[in-house]
Amino acid sequence: MKKRNVVIKLIVNNHPGVMARITGLFSRRAFNLEGILCGVIGDGTHSKMYLLVNNDDRLEQILKQVNKLYDVVEVTLLDQYNEDAFSHIGEVGREIQPEIQLRKAQ
Question: Is 50 inside any structural domain?
């Protein structure tokens, strides 16, 4: 049985209109975005986006289409992620960490 939701992690060029082009791709294909987190990384020329999406039969195709977009530098599918990152976005004082951090036991 497939997990209900997965996260698509994107590294994208950071300039006006990138978010609209990416979300427009999903909209045109009637593929719902359950959640979006985005922020500037590094020197500000790139942003990291986390898109919470349903894990259905169209996911592979949408990944291929996102990867073809000019401003998309990297696409990674995360099937393990911190579900609280999307459910607590509106809460003050909560740190958002979408990726699960694996730590080596000492």
Answer: yes
CA distance 3 to 53: 11
Cα separations in angstroms, 68 against 21, 23, 71, 106: 12, 14, 9, 42
Residue 85 domain flag: no
User: H or E element: which one contains 24?
Assistant: helix 18-28
DSSP string for residues in 59-84: HHHHHHHHHHSTTEEEEEEESSB-TH
Reported as a single tens digit per residue, the pLDDT across 22-68 is: 999 999 999 989 888 888 999 999 999 999 999 989 999 999 999 99
Place of tokens 């696409």: 75
User: What end-to-end distance do the CA atoms of the chain give, in Å?
Assistant: 35
Enclosing domain of residue 23: 5-80
